[in-house]
Amino acid sequence: MAKPAALELIKLTKSYGGTVAVDAIDQVIPDGTYTCLLGPSGCGKSSTLRMLAGHESVTSGDIVHKGANITDLPPARRGTAMMFQSYALFPHLSVVDNVAFSLKMKGVEKAKRQKEARELLELVDMSAYGERLPDQLSGGQQQRVALARALITRPSILLLDEPLSALDPFLRIRMRTELKRLQRELGISFIHVTHSQDEALALADHIIVMNRGKIEQDGPPQEVFDAPRTEFVARFIGGHNILGGSGNRKLAVRTDRMTIATQSSAGAIPASVVAVEYLGTIVNVTVETAQAGELTVSVGDTAYFHKPVEIGQSVFLTWKAEDAHQLAA
Ligand code: ADP
Ligand code: MG
């Protein structure tokens, strides 16, 4: 069953002077899902998120939240909360006071707001750090505090702008798991902006791919990866070879659906090995072809080492017709 819409974006547009950053996007974001807004730098992700949060005025179009038009409501009255790209905490306030800050602004009495702040610190596994100042915490810990601070308003939608980009790779993967767990536990919608396809594939129930202020494709991660609609999505999501010259309708074939043979067969494309990259569980073999330029074939490590290839070696590429996926022009 389709979940009810948490948010509906209707012809949502943002222009800065002459620059159209978000170009009349229509999108439904289902309730209680982890949605990733994915795309390259400058494609309009942050502008979209800031309009949803109410931190940026809408040039034209509407934002509807559970049936109510919230386009022009102030941030505190939209049911959303935002965790910023730079999750700067107030340096002179303790962790508990940082988390309780918005309740203080609302006039909630001290004992009550501190109790709520401690509950949220527990949720993000930071109970032991309530009395510390932000500069006595690691980057990952500061981020958990920032999350608790955003969640204390009990939003029905949490908006996160590149929340993992400042963390080192190890911590990034750990926090990624934490975010997913939190979203599941709370059952609210998370809308997470990222330029990392790995992050989006790992986290999202629903991926929205943006390019130049427009939505190129949206759907479950498996669908976006397996059936990219356009060349842009296929290249951006990665793991695909694009075949076919300019002008024609192009094809995408997943790099792990191509096979390398040392002997020719009907329909096989002759190629020459130019690079071999060992990645642990898979080995990426890059080959040069006359027909289609450089292509990559991902081979499982066991299969690869059973029959390794050498740079400069002549090989032949094959794939099944059903693995060639037509792209929209
Ligand atoms: P992303 O988050 O995907 O990197 P942004 O939404 O930040 O993209 O930016 C989209 C476009 O809007 C870019 O061309 C950017 O330069 C422009 N832009 C963003 N914020 C402003 C602003 N405050 N003033 C003028 N142009 C802006
Ligand atoms: Mg951004």
Provide a quick synopsis of the model:
The chain is α+β, with helices and mostly antiparallel strands and 329 residues long. It has helices at residues 45-53, 95-105, 110-123, 139-151, 169-186, 197-203, 221-226, 231-237, 301-306, and strands at 5-16, 19-30, 34-38, 60-65, 68-69, 80-83, 157-161, 189-194, 206-211, 214-219, 240-243, 251-254, 259-261, 269-278, 282-289, 293-300, 314-318, 324-326.
Helix/strand layout:
Blueprint: E1 5-16, E2 19-30, E3 34-38, H1 45-53, E4 60-65, E5 68-69, E6 80-83, H2 95-105, H3 110-123, H4 139-151, E7 157-161, H5 169-186, E8 189-194, H6 197-203, E9 206-211, E10 214-219, H7 221-226, H8 231-237, E11 240-243, E12 251-254, E13 259-261, E14 269-278, E15 282-289, E16 293-300, H9 301-306, E17 314-318, E18 324-326
Parallel strand pairs: 3-8, 3-9, 6-7, 7-8
Antiparallel strand pairs: 1-2, 1-4, 4-5, 9-10, 11-12, 12-18, 13-17, 14-15, 14-17, 15-16
The protein binds adenosine-5'-diphosphate and magnesium ion.
